[in-house]
Amino acid sequence: MRSSNPVFSRRGFSRDNGAYAGFGTQQPQAGATTNPYATNPYATDPATGMPQAPVRGNAMTIDDVVSRTAMTLGTVILTAVISWITLPVDAANINTSYGIAVGAALIAFVLAMVQSFKSKPVPALILAYAAFEGVFLGVISAAVSAQLGAGTVVQAVMGTMCVFAGVLIAYKMRWINVNRRFYGFVMAAAMGFMLLMAVNLLFSIFGGGDGLGFRSGGLGILFGVIGVILGACFLALDFKQVEDGVTYGAPREESWLAAFGLTMTLVWIYMEMLRLISILKGD
After folding, report:
1. Threshold 0.85, pTM exceeds
2. With 0-12 CB in 10 A as exposed, 13-18 as middle and 19+ as buried, what is 11?
3. Do 30 and 44 form a contact (C-beta atoms < 8 A)?
4. 108-112, 216-220, 253-257, 276-280 — which is least confidently predicted?
5. Which end of the chain offers a freer environment for a tag, N or C, measured as fewer CB atoms within 10 Å?
6. Percent over 90 (pLDDT), the chain
7. Contacts of 246 (CB under 8 A, 6+ apart)
8. What residues contact residue 97 under an 8 Å CB cut-off, 6+ apart?
């Protein structure tokens, strides 16, 4: 189970003949009868039609995911508060604070990429990512608060929490059908979205202003809404992977990847919310 984010690949999100990332996979001996449930944890019991999870020791639980997610999000919040307090965003220091924020964001991105290419989760990498991401969010939030008022940040946080709760309820009620088609659509849409944002950033760097205008005015509002919707879709994918990991006996260490994915998605939604509210208030 790999974390969900537009820049990361995912493992185990399939119901093909391969095992869920090797969870519960057994190599059949010569002449032995193959148990389909041992080699394919996505197979269903013909008697009940329900998935039959392999029996595993030290398997991941919901409590594991909740506790690891609390640790990563707590790290993000802690470093965000510290950077908000210690890095001034007044006119005399704004460039220095922004420089630190950009540096922290780049380090967080590198750490996230390193983790994404590792076969197993490394808690130290994940927590370090959360710490540097928090520094970036703290400076950005402080700057927005100084310009538009602290209520903007509070609204962005509340909006993120509402999106999380809404998607969780919709997922538990099975109003969202997370399947291969849903996954393919979300990934394609996210890659297109990120490509447009990258092009807009390049135009803004070399041409000045807001580039192609995707982050301001009417287009900015439209793409802000799209960004929030994409974040909600990734939350649904995260919930699906957590559910499958618990159901099919993923190792307990995989809960760190679940926490990693949820943290990245919530950061995505918060940033899009903050940008969207800032545009609305600025207009």
Report:
1. no
2. middle
3. no
4. 216-220
5. C
6. 54
7. 59, 60, 61, 62, 65
8. 87, 88, 89, 139, 142, 143
